[in-house]
């Protein structure tokens, strides 16, 4: 205990701390506090406003004694009650200690006053990245468990906390995750309780981690590959109802992510390799024959009860009788934390004796007098029954109706869904506040006020809702509310910023899923479900939940009612949503059918917006499928439709499509005219509407094809600058698919074609890293092909060929026309590897594909490559056949205005002529082509051409 200074008094306003008389006075009147409480306030005031840690306080006030932290909290609560309206003078530094604020003057007999100004200290440093919520209430009685689990996490990469409902698995896991020792990575909480479909576990992980997924499905492996080498702790909470999929995701993450650790809570063990199971036990309760206060305070169940009542500023007096009553209550609940918290909340309003009396009555009713034989899960139910029985009738009605919400809900949602003549909206808001105070509803701290029911509590409330006969009506109100909400979201999609829109609507997806599950159930309303599905398509698109969107839309389409009352506008939206969700899958034919149906309905409704979307979708579908003549016709229709569009950027949609189609058909001059018109007339504006409707940033797309056309026309330097600009624009748009698009179609191939292997490696790595990070398997396959091309360019043919072919073959039907440049590298690489016959077969297939589809932009290069392979094959007619192919290549390149292909064909033919002793014919062939270049003299092709020309001298 600190030494006391005689006749020393501290004053601040009307408060006095008299160290001589050991009194705390308010306006000169003593305030009754205990001796230990005074020693705390004395220690704090002597510290001149500086922080005093909890350990320092306990050591100085209870020097030499072993006390629990809860004891300090009880005394701090007592001091706050003594300070009354000025309780804010006693400031808590969360998790660290306390300080006494105010302007205190110290007076001593015969000495002048000394003023000490006390100020709050600066904010603490930010917490590590993640979404683990900040501590709301101290975890009591789990100190050893926290240490043990932290130790386990340092020894094992997979730890599962298991035990019955209400035992405190989640609370323990959150405490461990907030500050896990020896772990400085990200910490992410994945709440699985609201998932009705186990297949959505991987989607839930992807959504929380911000992984932008695209592909045929969101499953464990793509999610794990997207996580990659990130150092993180993944807390999978409430796994029991989706245990198989949770186990698959956890095991896959552990296998593919070397820096990931999984902490799971589940009533059922995951049973995965390397898992360590920690069984969470009840809190310690005092034995019936131990009623001494010192014995009772040493048990964690009693400490939890005291801590929760103290948090409500209604601390029971810690005398022998009160502690004995608390111990009895804790015993009746067998140390289950959730039940104890309910009892503590009741004690805050009813008092200990009343709680004990009602609790006794309830247990006699449930057990017929055999109290000690009650299993723990029945004990928890008894606690819920008892707590429910204390509610007023309007609170009971509200409580059971809130069970319809999955996950978090807003006050507005609760007011709309739970309202009825006997329960007004104002009653609902007051009722929720009351239920929060009674620990039946949890208030979450976010930007928007949100609430939720704990999993066990919600299950209990759902039973009450079923028993009431109200479930169908409340479920209908719930689905109707969310239909209206997502119709509002759909209307605001193009006018609000991405971040603001997602913040407003993204977190509501659990209730969307629950509403749809009910709507399409036998007891539900499929018509309502169809409307809700159509309205929710923007949410799935924005969150890149393409597989979920596909499944929901297919179910809605199957439920459409035939006949005159069929909602064709909703059907149109569903077909468009289905087509969008199929875009990056292997179901190419289904994509075309969906867009065709959407267009048919849009035309019948004279809906210009969806005509534009559907025509673009069909154009892209046929472009991807290398049906370029059909695509050109659709591009022309887009031009006609877009000319009437008010938005200047939308009016250029047709021009953009025309340019791409002409480029692939081989008319580079027309392609350039169209794309230059786009670049000249485009208005700089928010690109989000275009992203939403067409999935690729319009500026990125324009610059990508401008770069490709420039390179073909013999402007390699300008092409590289345009490609770099497309990458910059994509990164500025913060759009994953647009960046992959720019890298694959422009930056990577142009760098490789120029022979700039350093730049090529940079862009190939960026494509691989980005596609892996966001689990974009469609683009990752393309990146691996370029990785192979880069290896071949460096002379490692054995490594390069398998990568090159593997990436090309991986997507099957989904391989697109833009794979042409990669496809052409395969026969060249096979020739270099000595597999000439296989190379000739591959190039013949490519030429036939070009002739059948009209995709002629690479025909000159294809013919040149075939000529080179014929020379390698040898034979009496090889030279003549090769020369014929080189001359055909020259002719095609000249007609298409593809100067870069013309240079390569001229070099191949000139080299052949030189080797035949016809150098006099070779130089006049190559020199004029070389002289038409005005830039790019440091690129590989022009350097090689210069060397070849010098060899003729």
Describe the structure.
The structure is a single chain. The protein is of the alpha+beta class and 953 residues long. Among the domains are: 8-118, Winged helix-like DNA-binding domain superfamily/Winged helix DNA-binding domain (Arc Repressor Mutant, subunit A, Orthogonal Bundle); 143-279, 3-Layer(aba) Sandwich (Rossmann fold); 293-389. Helices cover 61% and strands 8% of the residues. It contains 44 helices and 17 strands. The strands form 4 sheets. A 6-stranded antiparallel sheet has the order 4-3-2-1-8-9, covered by helices on one side. A 5-stranded parallel sheet has the order 11-12-13-10-14, sandwiched between helices. It is elongated and about 115 Å long. The protein starts with 7 loop residues before the first strand and ends with a helix.
Radius of gyration, CA atoms, in whole angstroms = 36 Å
Give me the CATH superfamily of the domain at 143-279.
P-loop containing nucleotide triphosphate hydrolases
Estimate the mean pLDDT confidence. 82
Strand content: 5-15%
> What is the overall silhouette?
elongated
Give the proportion of residues in helices: 55-70%
SS element count, helices: 44
How far apart are the first and last residues' alpha carbons, in Å?
A: 102 Å
Strand order of the largest sheet: 4-3-2-1-8-9
- Main sheet: strands, sense, barrel: 6 strands, antiparallel
Can you name the CATH architecture of the domain at 143-279?
3-Layer(aba) Sandwich
CATH class of the domain at 143-279: Alpha Beta
Q: Which fold name corresponds to the CATH topology of the domain at 143-279?
A: Rossmann fold
Structural class: alpha+beta
Number of E-type strands: 17
Poorly predicted tracts of residues:
1-6, 109-127, 362-378, 684-692, 813-819
């Amino acid at each position: 205990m600190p030494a006391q200074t005689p006749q020393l008094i501290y004053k601040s306003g009307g408060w006095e701390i008299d160290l001589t008389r050991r009194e705390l006075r308010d306006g000169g009147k003593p305030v009754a506090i205990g001796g230990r409480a005074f020693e705390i306030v004395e220690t704090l005031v002597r510290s001149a406003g500086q922080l005093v840690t909890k350990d320092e306080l306990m050591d100085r006030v209870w020097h030499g004694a072993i006390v629990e932290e809860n004891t300090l909290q009880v005394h701090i609560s007592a001091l706050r009650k003594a300070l009354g309206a000025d309780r804010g003078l006693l400031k808590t530094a969360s998790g660290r200690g306390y300080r006494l604020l105010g302007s205190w003057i110290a007076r001593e007999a015969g000495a002048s006053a000394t003023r000490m100004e006390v100020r709050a200290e600066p904010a603490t440093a930010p917490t590590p990245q993640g979404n683990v919520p900040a501590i709301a209430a101290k975890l009591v009685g789990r100190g050893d468990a926290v240490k043990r689990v932290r130790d386990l996490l340092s020894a094992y990469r997979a730890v599962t906390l298991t035990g019955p409902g209400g035992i405190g698995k989640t609370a323990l896991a959150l405490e461990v995750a907030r500050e896990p020792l020896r772990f400085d990575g990200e910490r992410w909480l994945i709440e699985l309780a609201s998932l009705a479909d186990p297949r959505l576990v991987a989607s839930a992980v992807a959504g929380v981690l911000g992984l932008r997924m695209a592909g045929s499905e969101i499953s464990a492996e793509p999610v794990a590959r997207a996580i990659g080498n990130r150092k993180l702790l993944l807390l999978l909470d409430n796994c029991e109802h989706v245990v198989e999929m949770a186990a698959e995701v956890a095991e896959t993450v552990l296998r593919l992510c070397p820096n990931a650790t999984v902490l799971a809570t589940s009533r059922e063990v995951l049973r995965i390799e390397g898992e360590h199971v920690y069984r969470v036990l009840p809190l310690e309760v005092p034995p019936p024959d131990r009623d001494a206060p010192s014995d009772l305070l040493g048990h964690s169940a009693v400490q939890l009860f005291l801590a929760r009542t103290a948090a409500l500023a209604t601390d029971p007096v810690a005398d022998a009788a009160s502690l004995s009553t608390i111990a009895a209550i804790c015993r009746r609940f067998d140390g289950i934390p959730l039940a104890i918290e309910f009892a503590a909340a009741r004690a805050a309003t009813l008092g200990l004796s009343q709680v004990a009396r009602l609790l006794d009555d309830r247990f006699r009713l449930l057990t017929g007098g055999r109290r000690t034989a009650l299993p723990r899960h029945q004990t928890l139910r008894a606690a819920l029954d008892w707590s429910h029985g204390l509610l007023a009738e309007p609170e009971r009605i509200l409580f059971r109706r809130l069970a319809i919400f999955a996950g978090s809900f807003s006050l507005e949602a609760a007011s709309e869904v739970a309202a009825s003549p006997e329960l007004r909206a104002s009653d609902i808001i007051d009722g929720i506040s009351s239920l929060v105070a009674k620990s039946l509803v949890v208030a979450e701290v976010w930007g928007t006020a949100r609430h939720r029911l704990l999993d066990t509590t919600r299950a209990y409330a759902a039973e009450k809702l079923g028993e009431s006969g109200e479930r169908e009506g409340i479920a209908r109100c719930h689905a109707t509310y969310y239909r209206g909400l997502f119709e509002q979201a759909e209307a605001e999609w193009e006018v609000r910023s991405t971040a603001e829109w997602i913040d407003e609507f993204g977190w509501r997806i659990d209730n969307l899923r629950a509403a749809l599950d009910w709507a399409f159930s036998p007891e539900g309303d499929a018509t309502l479900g169809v409307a809700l599905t159509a309205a929710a398509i923007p949410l799935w698109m924005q969150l890149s939940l393409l597989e979920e969107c596909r499944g929901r839309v297919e179910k809605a389409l199957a439920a459409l009612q035939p006949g005159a009352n069929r909602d064709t506008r909703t059907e149109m939206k569903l077909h468009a949503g289905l087509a969008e969700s199929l875009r990056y899958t292997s179901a190419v034919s289904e994509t075309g059918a969906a867009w065709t149906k959407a267009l048919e309905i849009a035309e019948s409704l004279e809906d210009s917006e969806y005509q534009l979307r559907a025509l673009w979708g069909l154009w892209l579908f046929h472009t991807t499928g290398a049906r370029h003549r059909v695509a050109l016709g659709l591009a022309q229709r887009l031009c006609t439709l877009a000319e009437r569009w008010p938005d200047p950027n939308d009016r250029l949609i047709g021009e953009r499509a025309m340019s791409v189609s002409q480029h692939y058909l081989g008319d580079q001059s027309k392609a350039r005219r169209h794309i230059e018109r786009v670049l000249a007339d485009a208005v700089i504006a928010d690109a989000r509407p275009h992203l939403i409707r067409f999935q690729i940033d319009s500026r990125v797309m324009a610059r990508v094809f401008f770069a490709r056309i420039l390179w073909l026309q013999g402007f390699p330097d300008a092409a590289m600058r345009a490609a770099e600009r497309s990458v910059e624009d994509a990164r500025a748009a913060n759009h994953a698919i647009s960046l992959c698009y720019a890298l694959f179609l422009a930056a990577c191939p142009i760098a490789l074609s120029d022979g700039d292997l350093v730049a090529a490696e940079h862009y190939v790595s960026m494509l691989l890293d980005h596609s892996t990070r966001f689990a974009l398997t469609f683009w990752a396959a393309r990146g691996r092909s370029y990785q192979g091309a880069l290896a071949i360019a460096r002379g490692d043919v054995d490594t390069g060929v398998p990568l090159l072919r593997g990436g090309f073959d991986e997507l099957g039907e989904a391989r697109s026309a833009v794979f042409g440049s990669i496809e052409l590298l395969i026969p060249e690489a096979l020739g270099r590897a000595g597999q000439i016959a296989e190379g000739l077969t591959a190039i013949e297939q490519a030429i036939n594909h070009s002739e059948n589809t009209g995709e002629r932009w690479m025909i000159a290069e294809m013919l040149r490559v075939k000529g080179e392979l014929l020379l390698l094959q040898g034979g009496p007619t090889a030279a003549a056949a090769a020369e014929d192919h080189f001359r055909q290549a020259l002719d095609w390149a000249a007609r298409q205005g593809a100067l870069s292909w013309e240079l390569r064909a001229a070099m191949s033919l000139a080299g052949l002529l030189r080797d035949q002793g016809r150098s006099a014919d070779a130089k006049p062939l190559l020199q004029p082509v070389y002289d038409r270049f005005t830039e790019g003299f440091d690129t590989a092709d022009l350097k090689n051409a210069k060397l070849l020309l010098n060899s003729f001298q």
